[in-house]
Amino acid sequence: MELLVRYLDRSNSVSSDMTQDLVKEENLRDDLRYYFMSPCEKYRTRRHIPWKMGVQILKIVMITTQLILFGLNNQLVVAYKEETTMALKNLFLKGYTGVDEDDYSVAVYTQQAVFDSLFYVLDQYSQLGQLSVGPISYAEEDGKLLPLTICKEYYRKGSLEPSDETYDIDAHLETDCMSHDPRTANMWRTQNTSFFSLDFYRLVNIKISFQLKGINLQTIIFDNQCHSGKVKLFLDIDAESNACKDWKISGTAQKNTHYLLVFDGFVILVCITSAALCTRSIILAVRLLQRFSRFFQENFNRKVCEDDQSEFLNGWYVLVIVSDLLAIVGSILKMEIQAKSLTSYDVCSIFLGTSTLLVWVGVIRYLGYFQKYNVLILTMKAAFPKVLRFCCCAGMIYLGYTFCGWIVLGPYHEKFEGLSRVAECLFSLLNGDDMFTTFAQLKDKNILVWLFSRAYLYSFISLFIYMVLSLFIALITDSYETIKNYQRDGFPLTDLQKFLLGHKDFPVQEEIGQTEVELSNSIRHCYCCQRAPPSDDVILIS
């Protein structure tokens, strides 16, 4: 009788343990299913309001509106700088036609033209207040006008005899500078005639520097480095916007500024809320992954494969958090700009523009819940490894053509003058743009270089358009066809998906010795996920 009682007690305890294990397994399965549901499915299942999706929709509308408002203001600032630059070129550069020649503004070819252009700058600057129609005046410091400075840079000594084809040049440079009150700068020509006595065969350049209110620093350069008989004139403007010390705006503009500040503050609040919700989701996902890994280890003596682990580490949440941080920083900068405390328009535009880009890219996550809209995401995910490897190989050929084109064609073709310009030109040719112009603009004075350019361009276009680009498209098309087949026939199941479907057939992972470690590492991915050998066409789809 006692044996029977003990047997019944032991059976009850075993059945109780089995019941607890089943309940634990079902709870884990329910939590996993809920985690991978769409926001609408979560609402229908547990009546949980999708706050995160609502915040994201609100954030998209607000950040886009904020970007448009700031963009309109930034365009006015950039237009002001460009128009000011154009006005100053017309004021100080004699003979300026309104169109820059290549990378310089004006070129002169005679000694008299150099002197005329130099004295023209001094005359114009001395009577700037009577000439300019814009709000430009001389810069001051401690109540004194900042002087205008002229510096001439020339070789230390030298002699040149073109008739004898001899020259003797000391390459060490010397600099001689003078400064004067800006209002009497036009008097320099009579007071310092020796300074303006120029040996053009030794002269490298002349720099005229001055500062104006509204424009931080200006430098007019007479460039004679090549000594080719062509002196180039540059107007180099270091424009820096500064906040006004005493400013006042009356009327509706002041009210609009206050409304914009409140709106920007609300944008920051929404972004903080979004980042907090996404951070909470990442923490919950990590805890759920730990529960799932612990369950598999205890019940099946196996580890969760990397693809199943990546399903818990949602990259979309990271993307949203990054966009929120960028939007918060950009909004703070925008508020400081509107309050006239900062003038960093370019930095603010980079933060706001990048955050808006990431926010709109994040919308794809919600479209991915629909099968018909999910094709783009799945195709990019499947094709990315193959495309990346392909681009690495093609990039080596591309770099070779870039360096070759720069060293050979650079002196004869404006599109090949710099490495960055060569890369841009080849990319345009790769996409079939501007082909005839690239061929036609090459100077044919050197027949050897002309023949080389034809072989160079024809080989690049034929190789990259007909072979490389076609293979690139084929890789993406192949991935797209693979995804379409999977959508029709079904995707390969991983351990995670089998568990969600209620499967029980998980082979127990055997213990392995030290001599089998290398072999185990090579087949871990396949054994863990119970799939065919790894292939570029096989990806995890949840």
Written overview of the protein:
- With 542 residues, the protein is of the alpha+beta class.
- The protein is built from 16 helices and 10 strands.
- The strands form 3 sheets. Strands 1-10-9-8-4-7 form a 6-stranded antiparallel sheet. A two-stranded antiparallel sheet has the order 2-3.
- The two termini are 56 Å apart.
Notable features of this structure?
542 residues, alpha+beta, six-stranded antiparallel beta sheet, two-stranded antiparallel ribbon, 16 helices, disordered C terminus
Quick structural overview:
The chain is of the alpha+beta class. It has helices at 2-35, 39-46, 51-92, 111-126, 128-131, 188-191, 252-300, 306-312, 315-338, 345-367, 375-409, 419-430, 435-440, 447-489, 495-500, 517-529; strands at residues 106-108, 140-141, 144-145, 148-155, 158-161, 166-169, 173-180, 203-212, 215-223, 231-238. The longest helix is centred in the middle third of the chain and has 49 residues, at 252-300.
Q: Layout of helices and strands, plus pairs?
A:
Elements: H1 2-35, H2 39-46, H3 51-92, E1 106-108, H4 111-126, H5 128-131, E2 140-141, E3 144-145, E4 148-155, E5 158-161, E6 166-169, E7 173-180, H6 188-191, E8 203-212, E9 215-223, E10 231-238, H7 252-300, H8 306-312, H9 315-338, H10 345-367, H11 375-409, H12 419-430, H13 435-440, H14 447-489, H15 495-500, H16 517-529
Antiparallel strand pairs: 1-10, 2-3, 4-7, 4-8, 5-6, 8-9, 9-10
